[in-house]
Design brief:
Helix content is about 50%, strand content about 20%. By secondary structure, the chain is an alpha+beta fold. The chain has 2 domains: about 80 residues; about 120 residues, Mannose-Binding Protein A, Chain A. It starts with a helix and ends with a strand.
Length: about 230
């Protein structure tokens, strides 16, 4: 019985001693861990310094390029002004199309005719109404929309004895003549063409007349002029 008690005491003492032997290594782990943290912090600081230096160097390189771009843009602007002056000299003075402030003029593309605020182009061949509208679209324009009696008189001088499609068609659901711009025909300016069965589109020959949209006729396109 006494031996058992002694054995138990020795075993307890051995465990206590073993615990005391490992504690110094555990105490050494904390200073080593702190050392690596300090190294990481120093590395981060050095990285930030390098980044700041790189940003400064890049800014110094960009600034001269920025000045070059500004100078180049200035040269481009000067060239544009010269070209614009050349166009005014060769087109505006010749056609006397300057605006009231004498600073700009209106110019139309080749084969287009200027009248007031529009450029007009008339075809030589013939197409249906829908095909004519598509052709005008390829020319960055639309079928003619007549706004007043003065414009109608001018168009009559172009069309003469031929029929030309214009941008006016009959809206079947309402049986109303509508311009391609979405506005209804002003009957105070133009008498409404007689209603025709089937698809009906408008043409001009001295006055506005109706034709079947599938009929092949010449056509007139319109668009705004270039301001110089």
């Amino acid at each position: 019985m006494a031996e058992d008690i002694l054995y138990a005491d020795i075993k307890f003492t051995s465990q206590t001693g073993s615990s005391s032997l490992h504690s110094p290594s555990q105490q050494l782990a904390a200073p080593q861990h702190s050392h690596w943290i300090q190294i990481a912090l120093w590395a981060a600081c050095i990285g930030n310094v390098i980044l700041v230096i790189a940003v400064i160097v890049l800014a110094l390189q960009v600034e001269p390029e920025k000045e070059k771009i500004v100078l180049n843009n200035g040269g481009c602007s000067a060239s544009t002004d010269k070209f614009q002056a050349f166009l005014r000299l060769n087109f505006c003075n010749q056609n006397q199309n300057r605006s009231s402030d004498n600073s700009t003029c209106k110019v139309c593309p080749l084969q287009w005719q200027l009248h007031r605020d529009k450029c007009y182009w008339s075809s030589e061949n013939i197409k249906s109404w829908n095909e004519s509208q598509r052709d005008c679209s390829t020319r960055d324009s639309q079928l003619l929309v007549i706004q007043d009696k003065e414009e109608l008189d001018f168009i009559e001088s172009i069309t003469k004895n031929s029929k030309y499609w214009i941008g006016l068609s009959l809206l079947k659901s309402k049986k109303k003549w509508m311009w391609i711009t979405g506005f209804q025909l002003d009957q105070s300016l133009f008498p409404e063409p007689n209603y025709a069965e089937g698809n009906s589109c408008a043409a001009i020959r001295y006055k506005i007349i109706y034709e079947r949209c599938s009929t092949a006729l010449r056509w007139i396109c319109q668009k705004g002029p270039l301001l110089l």
